[in-house]
Design brief:
Length: 228
Amino acid sequence: MTLNSTEKKIDEFESTRSKRTQYTLEIAGAAIFGALSLIISALTTPYLVRVPGWGIAVFEFIAIIWIACFYIFGPRAGVLSLIIGAFTLLPFDTNQYGWIGPVMKFAATIPLIIVPVLILKLYKSENGSKILKKPKNFALTSVLSILVRCFLMFLVNVAVFMIVTQGYVDFVNLEIFGMPEINGWMAIFIGSMIINLYQSVFDLVIPYLLVFGIKGYGLQLDEKFEIW
């Protein structure tokens, strides 16, 4: 066996071990953040303010856990923590159709992970977090993610009212936003856009500030872990 072939095998072994370590960290991160979201769900879900006749929460902050996991440990961990966290919401959702809430939350959050990942692939770089943390890139991916989320969630809400909760649409209004005269399908359209817009901004910006910080200020968790 030549020296070059020996070095090549050592490099391959170290590369395999490095990947295994990364996968282990991703799974561990997803499990920890998923469990954290379970605790937060148990404490906050029963007290969420919801739109009358609709059941959609006016505001919640559970998704910041999943997006923070994505920013720190990468897309695989982010999606896994989302799956773990979203479906642990089932026992705590007080809606008559208890499964709808977790499914809706999953559908609302997944674009905030998938869209940035697809855009990052254009850079063909393994340093995903370093590219994403740049303010211009973050702004671009955030705007596109929010647009996709708003459009997707309007369609999902329409599907739910047409297929699952038929007859409830007439009872939906936006009185909670000071617009009691807006009801029915118009309330669903406007309400869906408003809620998903400000909720998306919160879900993206707060984890960004916590994980990446601004101009050297903040926890800089991405640099401490350097996973993706």
